[in-house]
Amino acid sequence: AASMIALAPAVHAQWVVFDPSNYSQNILTAARTLEQINNQIRQLQNEAQTLTNQARNLTSLDFSALGELRAASSATNQLIQQGQGLAFNVAQMETDFRRLYPESYSAAISGTQMATDARTRWTHSLEALRTATKVQSQAVQNLASDERTLTDLVNRSQSATGVLQAMQATNQLLAVQSRQAMQSQLLQITQD
Questions:
Q1: What CA–CA distance (Å, rounded) separates 155 from 79?
Q2: pLDDT tens-digit map of 57-91
Q3: Interhelix angle for 163-191 vs 66-82, to 10°?
Q4: In sequence order, what are the residues at sequence separation of 6 or more whose Cβ sits closer than 8 angstroms to the Cβ of residue 186?
Q5: For the whole prediction, is pTM greater than 0.70?
Q6: C-alpha distance from residue 81 to each of 38, 126, 179 (Å)
Q7: How much of the chain, in percent, has pLDDT values that exceed 90?
Q8: Which residues are within 8 A (CB) of 101 and not within 5 positions of it... i.e. 6 or more apart?
Q9: Which of 50, 145, 171, 179 has the fewest CB atoms inside 10 Å of its own CB, making it the most exposed?
């Protein structure tokens, strides 16, 4: 039994080594990394907001007054085209004017012809008055329609979500103003 030697396993103790400077460096590195990540998140949020603003600026106005403006202008033009009497065509008007309003009548022209010409002139005057009155009536109807259109466009312009909507509303407001100016010209022409 003496030959048995007890072999005892070797026991090694392990000690945890704590390096405070290495620990501090690791904390600083983690803090800087977290700060970089936060900066990247803020940058992505800013880019997302920029894209949202760009999309808002490119949003088209979902309203167009063009159809109403064309219809009103067309109605006024049709009234003028229906007007009888001296034509609003320069070449035709000049011919009719020379025939109906001669500088003088020769002795060969009968009193009946002069009376017929006077009657034709009176008819043309009556038709001119009728056309002017129709155009004025149409202008009054257009004013009510224009007021509704202007109110709608101003409201849409004031509530525009982006630059494109505001520009489109402004362009349509200018179109209403242009149509009203053209209508004023037509009224002046028919009155004259």
A1: 32
A2: 667 667 676 677 677 777 777 776 666 555 566 67
A3: 10
A4: 76, 77, 80, 135
A5: no
A6: 72, 16, 18
A7: 0
A8: 121
A9: 50
